[in-house]
Amino acid sequence: RWETDLSTDELFYLVEKDTNLFARWDAIQSLFKLAILSRADQKRKESLEENLIHLLERIISTASSNNPSFLATLLTLPSISELELSQNTIDPLSVYNSYYSFSALVGKSLSSNLFNLLKTYSHASLLDWPNGVGERKLIDIIWKLLISSGNSEIRLKALQTVKGKSMTLCLSALNSLLPICCIERDEAMQYFYSRWNNNPIILDTWFRLEASLPRPDALQITAKLLDHPLFDPLAPNSIRSILGGFVKNTKAFHSLDGKGYQFIAEQILSVDRRNPITASRLVKVFSRWRNYIEPNSQNMLEAIKFLSNKDLSI
């Protein structure tokens, strides 16, 4: 973990003035983390958030049309896993909620700016690779921000894109719809499955997304996926798709009753009997159990004890 004595004012200055692109990205990531984690700690910094919104407006207005990829990089929020690494004691549900509430704020505040960017870059995003790579990356970020803010127009656009020719944009659309429970998400997932269920590699993506969807019965649905007729229990990629997807499903995996941890522990035990190497990689999800708040820490320890009492491979 890199610690610096730079003030927030200095970070703002670096984002706008530094000639080194990495330094600009690193500075804005620090500001994003401070804003989101302050929310997670119930110490929301409204002035910081307001200044960040104004900063992003200026970045968008002065961005070069020749570098949409870097603009996308500056608009990308740190991932939830990165945010957790920046907490002294991890509160996974609070980080998750703060991430999406801040994302919604950015999407709503910058709505008109983001729609203007879509108009500017949408055509180029449809060009064949290697053209349009930066534009597709930027549109991916814009969709996530607008959809998290509750914009129904973009949800419909994402659904239409899932039915299009570009796999990159299709996956961007699906990932953008992922955290929002809506009709468009359900229809997009159904269409993606019906279109690609005869392709095992792409089907693994569907398994991952299905296990990742935040919903009240996520654990039960994930368990059913393991019995899906097209799931290959001997294929490491397929195993990681479902179980790895569930681990990314914050509310389900980190449920306060500990059922998410117990479920993964049971699956690790099952996988260990047929593929010890894959099981050894999966068990790493429990490696930081001491860093979590209670009851998460204790529940995770119980899952570890469950595994330690079993006859595991060496």
Please sum up the structure shown.
The protein is mostly helical. The chain has 18 helices and no strands.
Descriptive tags:
314 residues; mainly alpha; globular; 69% helix; 18 helices
Note down, in words, how this protein is organized:
By secondary structure, the protein is mainly alpha-helical. The chain has helices at 8-17, 21-40, 46-62, 68-75, 80-85, 92-109, 111-125, 133-148, 152-162, 167-177, 183-196, 200-212, 218-225, 236-247, 250-253, 259-272, 276-282, 296-308. The two termini are 32 Å apart.
For the secondary structure, the number of strands is 0
Series of secondary-structure elements, N-terminal to C-terminal: HHHHHHHHHHHHHHHHHH
Rg over CA atoms: 21 Å
Beta-strand residue fraction: under 5%
**Unreliable parts:** none
Shape descriptor:
globular
Based on secondary structure, the structural category is: mainly alpha
Distance between the termini: 32 Å
Question: What's the helical proportion of residues?
Answer: 55-70%
Task: Please report the number of helical segments.
Answer: 18
Major sheet: none
Compute the average pLDDT.
96
Topology:
Layout: H1 8-17, H2 21-40, H3 46-62, H4 68-75, H5 80-85, H6 92-109, H7 111-125, H8 133-148, H9 152-162, H10 167-177, H11 183-196, H12 200-212, H13 218-225, H14 236-247, H15 250-253, H16 259-272, H17 276-282, H18 296-308
Helix pairs in contact: 1-2, 2-6, 4-8, 6-8, 7-8, 8-10, 9-10, 9-11, 11-12, 12-13, 12-14, 16-17, 16-18
